[in-house]
Amino acid sequence: xxxxxxxxxxxxxxxxICIINSSDEKEIVFKIDNTVVGIEQMLTSVSDYEQNxxxxxxxxxxxxxxxxxxxxxxxxxxxxxxxPALEIKLSQGIQRGKNxxxxxxxxxxxxxxxxxxxKPSALPDKELFTVKNLLTYRxxxxxxxxxxxxxxxxxxxxxxxxxxxYEMDEIAQQIKELDQKIAFVESKIKQxxxxxxxxxxxxxxITRIKGVGFLTATYMLVLTDNFTKFKNPRKFNCYAGLAPFxxxxxxxxxxxxxxxxxRNRKIKTVLFSGANSAIMYDEELKTYYKRKKLxxxxxxxxxxxxxxxxxxxxxxxxxxxxxxxxLTRYNLHMS
Length: 335
Prior knowledge:
By secondary structure, the protein is an alpha/beta fold. It is 55% helix and 14% strand. The protein has a 5-stranded mixed sheet. Strands 6-7 form a two-stranded antiparallel sheet. A hairpin with a 5-residue loop joins strand 2 (14-21) and strand 3 (27-33). One of its GO terms (biological process) is DNA transposition. Residues 204-290 form the Transposase IS116/IS110/IS902 C-terminal domain.
């Protein structure tokens, strides 16, 4: 049985397809519309391409533009691999030139090269997907509100030399309305979680940890696919950009241990906020912070370590049936 690797470069309106086989005897490149009709045409042509063959679909994680393709593949019980774009780029080495067809070829070759290591992808459950979209909309509203707040500061300065009462009132009204919208979206998120027993159970567990509030808990549920996507907290810390890595080579290069820039910036920001709260209200983490500060450690370095500890607590609590209790009872090391 031959295996065919199908690389798909996704854009808003079109999909560029490249098909190669395990021996590179053939290479077929074509373009379809990123629509139900276009994807149906691709699936039909591929299935008729050669009988008794295995087809592996691979495409970059491009956000919303790839949702239709992923949904249609899942509906037809077709295995696919959705890979971060940077991961594919780094695997190719130095590249010259770029267009959609070339990108499709590179994705197909990536799928062939790493076929043994790739793990099938899947969209989140409907309920979790709804929560994810609500979080996205909340982030959008926060950005818009921040813009209005910045403009308010700017007009305040202008108000020292001109009458800008109308503008200030309008901006204040916009901020008030955005506050109400953000609160409403957050209530819908909470309602969605409360209505799903499997989500609510883990949400209730992890929000008992000091430093883990509504936003941190919700992002953890979404990013871990309700704690099914990551096998252990260390892997999640790597994903979030919290895990420190050595930077040494032989005897000549002895750099500082540091975190990777390849990270999910949003969850790291959320976790840092939670960690800053935790060192105020959790006696164990407060003691840890003070001790490290006396040792001359920088604030952000300590907070990063506290974030790692929060992640370990979160994963530990999810695995247990008992609610969160003070972890000193479990002799966890705080060094």
